[in-house]
Amino acid sequence: MKYCKECGFPAPYGKFLEWTSDGTILGNDEMRTRLVYLDVDELSHLFNGISKWVERPIDKIICQAEKTVGRRFVETLLPGFLTKIPKGRFARPEPGAKLVGNYMFNYMGGLGMGRAVILQYQSGKYAKVKITNGHSIALIAGDGAGVFEYLERIRVHISWVKAGSEQYILELTKSGDEAEKETEIQPAKEYVKGNAELEKCPSCGVPLLITRNIYLNLEKGTLRHKITGVRVVALPVESFNAVMRALSREFGEELNDFVEGLERKYFRENFVPIKEDQGNKHEAIYSDFNWKGIGNPSGLVQTSTGLEVTVLNPFHPQAVAGRVAGIYEASTNTAVRSTANEISPGVLKVVMEPVSR
Length: 357
Ligand SMILES: [Zn+2]
Prior knowledge:
Helix 9 runs parallel beside helix 12 (317-332). Among the domains are: 58-176, Trafficking protein particle complex subunit 3 (Muramoyl-pentapeptide Carboxypeptidase, domain 2); 253-354, 2-Layer Sandwich (Muramoyl-pentapeptide Carboxypeptidase, domain 2). It has helices at 11-16, 40-54, 59-77, 80-83, 94-110, 137-152, 208-213, 237-251, 254-270, 281-285, 288-292, 317-332, and strands at residues 17-19, 25-27, 34-39, 115-122, 126-132, 155-164, 167-176, 214-217, 222-225, 231-236, 296-302, 307-312, 336-344, 347-354. Helices cover 39% and strands 25% of the residues. The chain is α+β, with helices and mostly antiparallel strands. The chain is globular and about 65 Å long. A six-stranded antiparallel β-sheet has the order 1-2-3-10-9-8. A four-stranded antiparallel β-sheet has the order 4-5-7-6, covered by helices on one side. The protein has a four-stranded antiparallel β-sheet with strand order 11-12-14-13, with helices on one face. The protein binds zinc ion. The site of zinc ion (ZN) has 9 residues, from loops.
């Protein structure tokens, strides 16, 4: 991996990703894959909370929903020459598939998704992979299955077992002759124009706030906040949304409101204010939204008793609404009643009023 001479951040970041003024982080691939930085604990808080709420494990649903997204990773992010070696009825030569697999895993490590090593690989039949420091084993398993199905043009069954404190063994076994039908690929999205200003490295274009705040340990495949030590992961937004869509199909639309509550609780309990030299206190508490790709907090209006926050292009409206309220509660040490509405596509308004006690 090459690093930027100016800011020291891995060079591929600046090459593949663009931090826009709309509060989004977009890949330069055909799909304009959008990424968002989330806390790894936030993800497990969400998945565990949902699982408790519906009183059953949800790993299989997460994994299945992630599979198509995983496949899309390969299609849009891998150099053409790697994916265009023999496919279809001809078995792909093992070294080629291993090469593609390792390239993918390296890329995932750079996003903070942990490290993976292919232990066994039998073209068209079976693969065994060791995952260390994975951000979410169900998501990684889905990615792995998607990639394997794409490369081998077969259907696979996937299972995993815990092999250590931060280790899993993943097994992919052929279960059918044809890969699952691809869900329709969405065209690149349009975003609402925002007003985020991010000072960027003159050499690689990565915002200085990223290099100042995030530490990448490529060997471990982890990203951590340099000041708080909190582990984060850069997740494709479509991953998150595909999983949430699958879960709400299964458990009902009210799941999204439940997600809002979970996010709110997580941030109320875990928000760590970072001192940045900004005049407005309220602006400061939401200032990481832009570089994390959460959305663009474009307007903050102090009402007589509370606060109104407008966020453009939220990566998931309910998750962002919960985050906004939870951070406000944590930083003001008050309980609030909040109402969130998407007043037009891509424009989320959250109104918060203190609850009188
Ligand atoms: Zn740089």
